[in-house]
Amino acid sequence: MKNILKNEVYIGNTVQNKRSRISYKNRKMRTNPQEQWNIVENTHEPIIDKQVFNKVQKMVIVQRYNRNEKKHKFLLDGLLVCYECKHKIGVRKKKNGYMFMICNNYRRNSKLGLCTSHGFSYDTLEKNILQYIKNIFLAIDSKKIELNIKNNQTKQDYGKMLKQKQTEINLIKDNIDKMYVDKLDNKISEEMYERLFDKLINEVKQKEKEYNELKIQKEDNRQDNSKEIEKIVKEFLKVEKPTPEIMKVIINKIEIHQDKQVDIYFNFKKLNDLKDKFS
Q1: Distance between CA atoms of 100 and 125, rounded to whole angstroms?
Q2: Predicted confidence (pLDDT) per residue in 214-251, tens digit
Q3: Rounded to an integer, what distance in angstroms lies between the CA atom of residue 136 and that of residue 150?
Q4: What is the pTM of this model?
Q5: What gap in Å lies between CA 123 and CA 48, rounded to an integer?
Q6: Opening angle at CA 45, ends 41 and 47, nearest 5
Q7: At what angle do helices 122-141 and 226-238 cross, to 10 degrees?
Q8: Is 87 in a helix, a strand, or coil?
């Protein structure tokens, strides 16, 4: 049951490279870390709504966090990722109370030179990120910036556009079928058929690509609920000390670069679209 809750196959994605053989001499399989998985989106029709699935993932993260009691809990724990090697970045606390970050890949394999420490003050990072989010949320709350920054796109009727695109795809496929019949009836030459066939197949691929892009846009616009974001904004601004749970609802990941550059990726597309205004 636990695996079903985390399986992206149910939302139309194909996940590859989850397991691999230990070596060519050893047939035993091992589970690869999640950062090594290859995820191909929209490969088949989903049977679970993506919005529902994403909400469940946030709940699972929070429950897992609560179960795994740690000696020291950090506000951004579990969100920090190394930009260079894509492994998690951990937080360590010295006896004098100083907290610093370290790439887990470097910590485990420091002698192999697979990455660098990425170590600098965790307290400074947490303070700056909290202030950064607060600045964005205060601007949203005071209506100084609008969440509907892509209002012209959200009002589009994606259902009609998808139907139109599917009609175009079906029409080209019908032409391919008719052209094949004409070839069998010697109405067109083999050479002409091959040339037109390649041209039409490329058109189908392009139309199908556009169709899938429209589906993704439709999903993004449906999931990016301004009211839900406004609710989270108010909750965040109301609390005196944010919790790790609320940070995981707001933030998808925080990438730490070797040169100490920090990139924040929110769970909401509209918030990601606003980042440039506050960088």
Answers
A1: 10
A2: 887 776 665 556 778 888 888 899 888 899 988 998 99
A3: 17
A4: 0.52
A5: 40
A6: 105
A7: 120
A8: coil
